[in-house]
Amino acid sequence: MSELPRRIAGLVLLLVAVALPLVLEDFWLQLGLFVMATMIGAVGLTLLVGVAGQLSLGHAAFAAIGAYVYVWATSESEPTLAGAGLPAVVGLVLAVAVAALVGFVFSPVASRLRGIYLGLATLGLVFLVRHLLLNLDPWTGGFNGRSVEPFTLGGFSFSNRDPDYLAVAGVELEGLHRLWYLFLVLTLLACWLAANLRSSRTGRAWANLRDSETAAAAMGIGVARYKAAAFVVSSGYAGLAGALLALAYGRLAPDVFTLTVSVDFLVMIVIGGLGSVGGAMVGALFVTALPLVLTQYSDALPFMAAPGSGGLDPATTSRLLYGLAIIAVLVFLRGGLAGASRRLTGRRAASGAPDDTPRPTTPIAPGHEAGDRTSESKETAR
Amino acid sequence: MSYFLTQVLNGLSFGLVLSLIAAGFAIVFTSTGVLNFAHGSVVLLGAYLVAVTHPTIGFWAAVLVGVVGAAVVGVLVNALLVRNLADPNPGTAAILMLGVDILLLTELTRRIGNRVLPLGAPWGADVVRFGGIALPAGRVLAAGVAVVVFAGLWFLFARTRLGIGMRAAAADGPTASLMGIRLSRTGATGWALAGVLAALAGVFLTSFPSPGVAPPVALSAFLAIPAWVLGGFDSVPGAVLGGLVIGLVTALTVGYESELHVLGGGFGEVVPYLVMIVVLLVRPQGLLGSKEAVRV
Prior knowledge:
The structure holds two protein chains of two kinds.
Chain A: H1 3-19, H2 26-51, H3 59-74, H4 88-112, H5 116-135, H6 137-140, E1 146-147, E2 152-153, E3 156-157, E4 167-168, E5 171-172, H7 175-199, H8 201-211, H9 213-218, H10 223-249, E6 251-252, H11 259-272, H12 277-296, H13 314-332, H14 336-344, H15 376-380
Antiparallel strand pairs in A: 1-6, 2-3, 4-5
Helix pairs in contact in A: 2-7, 2-10, 2-11, 2-12, 3-4, 3-5, 3-10, 4-10, 7-8, 8-10, 11-12, 11-14, 12-13
Chain B: H1 2-32, H2 39-57, H3 59-81, H4 90-112, E1 127-130, E2 133-136, H5 137-159, H6 161-171, H7 173-178, H8 183-206, H9 216-220, H10 224-231, H11 236-255, H12 267-282, H13 292-295
Antiparallel strand pairs in B: 1-2
Helix pairs in contact in B: 1-5, 1-8, 1-10, 1-11, 2-3, 2-4, 2-8, 3-8, 5-6, 6-8, 10-11, 10-12, 11-12
InterPro entries (chain B): ABC_transp_permease, BCAA_transport_permease
Transmembrane segments (chain B): 12-29, 34-51, 57-81, 133-157, 188-207, 213-231, 238-256, 262-282
Main location (chain B): membrane
């Protein structure tokens, strides 16, 4: 069974992810939190852009909504700042629900527009949400933002206190360690759900839409409904990513969620390979970790200059590398990293690369991740 | 009253600058089907070239350098990248342009740093006055240049073989190709024209009342996207109209911000995007666009 090596590899990766906090320093733990939070956002975006073929530049807006809803829901009310004082889990659920709801409210636009036109409409959303964040001071804290309460679960706090001392194998589990495990569980859940969703009836309908709306409609797929659904699901993922980013940052401000963040999410899924859940995760790792790691080790890298000196500072270098990576992937590497790894392992799906090519003649199954075995007939004959 | 008139004229003249950029979006889109997210950085590139070359070769020669440089970059991006996409379709092309935008903008930001480069425009901070209304000379000139440019574009598209070929290629590429129109040539012309328009707009966006050439200029060029969408994706006259509307709406919202305080501070920055979303919802093909362009 060709599934077996893949399962073993997955299990090993999981064990590594579980064991890592025991040996890592705080910098790497923090980095891991950011990577996992953005992974969730990227996976949600790849469902919309890669699988359903709708371009979105509004992911940062939905992440912002999720983050601010979470903070509002879990904070206690203060004289200047409103808060609902709800349990953290409820806050997390609300963050996803409200982001998805806003996605739903926006979905009349999303279901009427296709591809790049939706991209333009969502571009406006980023600016609108930013305007609201800046102006709704009583809820968002305006320009200065507001701080984030630590996550708690039934008296157990994901911070350095409550319980004060918790150790496994002689390593004290502090806030960052505890958050790592929380994020790991949520990331695995989100990715598992996304992978299943992609190969479900809904996911196949999305892929059909991407390949040809006319053909999809002819096969009985409600085009507007499924496009709206893709948008809502992707918004919910962005909301969860936003809430986790809020926890990882510990403080929120409107400048956390600029248009650049939307573009970064797109960069992640393009580098990883559009439509591939695994690819989105690898892309998120690359895009999120690169600038932080370069900053951390800039002293050791001789070509790295100090920020603002006009030389190659870490932020500049990583942005240049993303730009080059995007262009290289789109021009030379069909299907991104996922497509490349599939070709390398020689297990190329018979049904085409994971991209958003409109194929007007026959609906073709969505791109598979490496080893995602389902026969093409099963994918298309619904 | 004269305050109102000043705001209107300010808005219209700024709107014409936006129209220059929006027309670039429309021309690239019709000639090659690409949503050019890197257009904002090309605007900045044009202005940057003028700012760095004007001390040695003089302002007017520097403008020429900026215009030619921006056009060449556009043509190269099209020839080297867009035409070589592994998987050519509007979605991947748009993402590719985001990549190009990241590269160009990062490199220009690195070169400019924290400085604001003076553009060296000979009209400086002059103000033109007539009947109690004062307008920056740069804006008046911008409006004049825009009108001349749009007249030239009309002539190109209506009266010359090249322009008619471009329209044919936009209407139906494969058929135009069979009729002997070289799509590579019409595409390159479109990108070059867009570069020229971007550089001109860059000059006016960075001269008085703007302090000079700095990276945020690329972002303000984003304001032309609502103008383009408003006018219709495939229509140059639509882009002009859209630019005027967006310029006017923005100027009036900013000018009367104290009365519109309910909507929050800085509402003028988001009103174009609000207009764009409403237009996409009510009339997705824009004011003057053809419906086919939206169905894809």
